[in-house]
């Protein structure tokens, strides 16, 4: 099982930084924030489980999805050279297409922000920040078949998209076999490399305010007009509190 921190939940940015310092191993460290305590499965796998799609059917479905994205995204991408599958998958992931990629960041504060950016859907839920130490890194070549991996890897994508740059983005690319969907925290390679920090729901708003003071916000994580508009709402409407008299 992943190492769940047994100490007090994270209640401030300084709590989080201190806890990271106490558990540092000195190597590469990546972060993933979630506003609900879900297992580490890519979106396409979660959707497949919900829809009853069997693991052995997923490769064919994914490849057809990526091929359509390749054909129809050309005028929107503005890239002269043909992109590899893993480059294209990175862009598709950041624009809403479900893939076998799972988002991570090399920026600890960005990881914390993703955990608290939106309140949990249910009042009983809490957020988490997953931390992986010493991930199994891979540099993909143009000829690599990303749909036939022997294990789950982590990679840093080329800076093909403003969001990837702003978020110090990394991805894990999920290897699933043809018989089951196995979450990252249950895979032998990562079972002991993962830590999980719990963030109480009642601390989300105060953590958002702290992070904003440090320059981490919707606008900085999503440097486009949509991110700006959402951030303006967060600053002036969502965080509004009546003045006490």
Give a description of the structure.
Helices cover 38% and strands 14% of the residues. The termini are far apart. A four-stranded mixed sheet has the order 1-7-4-2. A three-stranded antiparallel sheet has the order 3-6-5. By secondary structure, the protein is of the alpha+beta class. It is globular. The protein is built from ten helices and seven strands. The protein has one domain. The mean pLDDT is 88.
Low-confidence stretches: none
Helical fraction: 25-40%
Q: State the total count of DSSP E strands.
A: 7
Structural class, please? alpha+beta
Radius of gyration: 19 Å
N→C terminal distance: 50 Å
In N-to-C order, the SSE pattern is EHEHHHHEHEEHEEHHH
Number of helices: 10
Briefly say what this structure is.
By secondary structure, the chain is α+β, with helices and mostly antiparallel strands. Helices cover 38% and strands 14% of the residues.
List the topology elements.
Blueprint lengths: L2 E2 L8 H11 L5 E6 L8 H9 L3 H18 L1 H4 L7 H10 L6 E5 L2 H9 L10 E7 L19 E3 L6 H5 L2 E5 L20 E6 L4 H10 L4 H4 L3 H14 L7
Parallel strand pairs: 1-7
Antiparallel strand pairs: 2-4, 3-6, 4-7, 5-6
